């Protein structure tokens, strides 16, 4: 029988866990899961915002190719191209019983993704209880199980119903952020929300261990992109695209840390490889299962990331090696996208902007940003205009261009429209009398 596969995915977590070296984060269950399974220390999303990253993860194809160049909900109206296939669709066709717990964020309609059963969104603890109920009833099942388990936490406004925040002086301020009261207040709520996720994951894990399918189930824990703070979410800096990736199950090494570069487009081919199923020919990702099983594996020289839309058009692309990062910014847009909702979504963003007003002489994207991650891990010194690094600059530009060309990035041919524009201009033409 095929292995069961459970994928737990959070919003806006990045690598904000103790097992990734963040001090004072209460994540004992996930830390224990990482210690007895495999942790990927250099795992990256393809995009620093929810829908594009998730669409890439579940299709194994980059956002600019699968159609989700921005958010799928509300009036943003982005969606997977009709030809794109979600992992749930592929596994369902292969005989899996497919479940979605919580709300997906990779397509406009949940039915598009291919799950047979949808369990509605709830706080993470209640959602974990729904997963537990399905797991404990598996003794009568004659089909393998696939579950996409979507915790809303720790998305802003950082829900944490079952956890009290730490005192503000006990949270660690990341070195790429200023130490401001507003930042500490937000970080305390973020940490409490992560602690809630950790409890929910522990509840889910305990239920699996007491279920009839524990010995033939692969569990993956990951997230879509970095934490919702300046220099992270909605940017292509490492805090925006570095993500947690933890795995445990039959054949997965215990206590292993994988240091090779991993992109989230690699997860779908890896899961299909693990289930001994054929891989679609149009994938952009590659299976990293040989890294875990001792097979032949060609490590990535680069990972690539992109942003086209979040709340507005802000096209940028990035290439990252184990040492160097190049970001190409294609619009003269503000240095940091900020939500218009100050109290719920953007308070610390505004305060950081004020604190950095002297540092940001020109608070807009330069054409290129080049960072030496070995000597500048927090991406504070842009070397793009330094002639000392001209050869590396040009090498990375060529690598980025080749990737965009090979994957059919429409940005090479001109500005890109998102779903909202396509819908609205179509309606406008009809109402204006020009079909």
Which whole number gives the mean pLDDT?
95
CATH architecture of the largest domain: 3-Layer(aba) Sandwich
Structural class: alpha/beta
CATH classification class of the largest domain:
Alpha Beta
According to CATH, the fold-level topology of the largest domain is: Alkaline Phosphatase, subunit A
Kindly give the count of domains.
Answer: 2
List how many beta strands DSSP finds. Answer: 14
Spans of 5+ residues with little confidence (pLDDT < 50)?
A: none
Report the span from N to C terminus: 53 Å
Walk across the major sheet and give the strand order: 5-4-6-1-7-8-2-9
CATH homologous superfamily classification of the largest domain: Alkaline Phosphatase, subunit A
Short recap of the structure:
The protein is of the alpha/beta class and 435 residues long. It has twelve helices and 14 strands.
Primary descriptors:
single chain; 435 residues; alpha/beta; Arylsulfatase, C-terminal domain; eight-stranded mixed sheet; four-stranded antiparallel sheet; 12 helices; 14 strands; globular
